[in-house]
Amino acid sequence: MVHDVVKVHEEDFDPGQLHAWLKAGEGDAGAIITFTGIVRDLVSGNLEGLYLEHYPGMTEQALAAIVVQARRRWSLGRVVVCHRVGWLQPNDNIVFVGVSSAHRAEGFEAAMFLMDYLKRDAPFWKKERTADGEQWVKQKCTDLAAARRWSESG
């Protein structure tokens, strides 16, 4: 029986459909936790687009490995990690992470873990386009620190 969905693609996704798939599990889940990330504009307000590049096959394997790590820590039902690539505009969906679990606390923790490790370990490269040109985005120290707290907590 399939309990994990890991997808990387250019097409938009429907958070409602992904939530429905999480809910259609075996009936032992008492919580469904989801996160939908969207492309946000820059502080300056001049983001024209965001380009996400990835290494096909390698990226999906990295995401699946993060899901395996989460399953080792928490008792989870269904898990979804869906990430878009290609050119995206402000307010477009970019990532969806969802988990079903028996209890809300482990669901919240698992969803946060998945996002924190995705931001640190998944091989995605981002390029921002503004009126001033294009530039690749460096990984944020805050993302590294967020993932580090999980290794410090066991």
UniProtKB/TrEMBL annotation:
Annotated EC: 2.8.1.12
The pathway is:
Cofactor biosynthesis; molybdopterin biosynthesis
Stored Pfam families: MoaE
**Gene Ontology molecular function, alphabetical:** molybdopterin synthase activity
UniProt cross-references to InterPro entries, sorted A to Z: MoaE_sf, Mopterin_biosynth_MoaE
- The reply on keyword DNA damage is no
Listed under GO biological process in this entry are: Mo-molybdopterin cofactor biosynthetic process
Could you tell me what reaction this enzyme catalyses? 2 [molybdopterin-synthase sulfur-carrier protein]-C-terminal-Gly-aminoethanethioate + cyclic pyranopterin phosphate + H2O = molybdopterin + 2 [molybdopterin-synthase sulfur-carrier protein]-C-terminal Gly-Gly + 2 H(+)
Record key words, sorted? Molybdenum cofactor biosynthesis
UniProt keyword annotation of Transcription regulation present: no
Gene3D superfamilies given for it? Molybdopterin biosynthesis MoaE subunit
Q: Family per UniProt?
A: Belongs to the MoaE family.
Q: What quaternary structure, including any partners, is listed in this protein's UniProt entry?
A: Heterotetramer of 2 MoaD subunits and 2 MoaE subunits. Also stable as homodimer. The enzyme changes between these two forms during catalysis.
**PANTHER family in the record, alphabetically?**
MOLYBDOPTERIN SYNTHASE RELATED
Q: What is this protein called?
A: Molybdopterin synthase catalytic subunit
Q: Which organism is it from?
A: Marinobacterium halophilum
